[in-house]
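Justification of resources, computational component.

The compute hours requested in this renewal are based largely on the per-chain cost of generating structure records like the one below. Each record pairs the submitted sequence with a full structure-token output. That output is archived, and it is also reused by downstream analysis tasks.
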Amino acid sequence: MTIPRLLVVDDDAEMRAMMVQFLRQNGYIALPASTEAEIQTLIKDNRVDLVLLDVMLGDENGVEICARLRKDRDVPIILVSALSADHQRMAGYEVGADDYIAKPFNPDLLLARVKAVLHRARRSASLIYRRNTETFHFQGWIYDGKRDEVRAPDGVQVALSKRETALLKVFLANPHIPLTREEIAAALDVTGDSGGDAAGRAIDVLVGRLRTKVEANPKDPKMLRTERGVGYVFSADVEVEAS
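The structure output for this chain reads:
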């Protein structure tokens, strides 16, 4: 099992040392840094799974550093700051921060937020990576990734849109795993002008369309089941043939 490697960026030496020690005591590899130059050196020379980035770094600005990191890196970033007004938080989210924690904070809260962001990052990476496997077999159905074709148990090819096919591949790569609408939307890069609610509704509509193509009775689905309080789960065994 890979131990997560975290980068702790703070120009306050005492705070930086405290956070590094706390994270190491809780099973993480924690690397200290205090400037953007040190961040770039450590990310270049080490695998970094998450960056804890202070907003106020002396003459440097953590929000601006976050924006620059986002241009060419997907590493999760949690901004840490004594500035906690809504517009300050939004400034962080707008440049791509995954979370924002206000100082002073409870160390256990920090740990919980680190775990949550790492979990989301792993799930998202898994959804995007695993859906490229070549051929899936499920309850007599076949999805051929090489030809991008879906065939029903009777051998008849079923026409799916590109978005429906992408959704099916996400489910096939994660059978029996409840997936939230947010996770599915992130994997499909589905967004909405009204934020998460709009994306969630878009996923509901897309699942409904896919059900009409692959379920014998879309109103009583056996494979694409709704998981109450979570989202959806693909309730079928899947056999995979890699290329």
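The CA atoms of residues 37 and 43 lie 10 Å apart. The chain is about 45% helix and 20% strand.
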